[in-house]
Amino acid sequence: MRILIIEDEHALARNIQKYLLLEKCTADAVFDGEEGFQQASVHNYDCIVLDLNLPKLDGREICRLLREQENNVPILMLTARAGTEDVVRGLNIGADDYLCKPFEMEELLARIRALIRRKSENRSPILDIKGVCLDANTQIVSRGKKQIALSPKEYMLLEYLMRNANRALQRTSIISHVWGAQEDQLMFSQTLDVHIAYLRKKVGKDLIETIPGTGYMISTQS
Predict the structure, then answer these.
(1) Of 100, 119, 138, which marks where a domain is finished?
(2) Which domain holds residue 93?
(3) Which of 9, 26, 86, 113 is in Cβ range 3.0-4.6 Å of 2 for a Cys bridge?
(4) Confidence of residue 121 (pLDDT cuts 50, 70, 90)
(5) Which of 58, 88, 119 corresponds to the end of one domain?
(6) Which pLDDT tens digit goes with each residue over 36-53?
(7) DSSP state at residue 100
(8) What is the pLDDT of residues 88-111, one digit of tens each?
(9) Helices 85-92 & 59-68 angle (0-180, nearest 10)
(10) DSSP for 192-213?
(11) Are residues 141 and 51 in the same domain?
(12) How far is 61 from 162, CA to CA, in rounded Å?
């Protein structure tokens, strides 16, 4: 899972980020509304944790703008007060759920997983391309009857490529989705190549294509 945290309380944002990283999520944290909206518009996230009261651009406006862009990423609002007009307005303009401060990290993660699961119900959990089968529910990857052991990053990389089959994915897009890196792209570009090499050894050299000048692609065509 890749999560965007938009929260101007730096300590809280960092604590959420650290907890999600411990739970094997990729988590980016930003501290004002303008940067948060930019990140949400450019990158693909599985869920956004969005504070209502933000500097530069508040959470309600971010939510409204994203929905106008037809960006249907699940949004979990954070608010200091329950049952207020702000919460109702936030839900009415497209937020999916809200959580009142203070909260337990376990509840936050449970809400995030529920929102992602709800969205995922509309897409198949089973991906099968050229004999490689990925089950998103169990996170098991197999080829034929043989189960393939993947690291968390290898799994995220393979799932991203398979869900975007027949699309030539930019290196920057892949790096952003899997590693959450916005800087040091050169360093992560080398990391990407290493992980692609590992994946090819495990799932077969014929599955992942190199697209010169662009990045990588998985094609469903033989």
Answers:
(1) 119
(2) 2-119
(3) 26
(4) low
(5) 119
(6) 999 998 888 889 999 988
(7) E
(8) 777 888 889 998 899 999 999 999
(9) 10
(10) HHHHHHHHHHHH-TTTEEEETT
(11) no
(12) 33
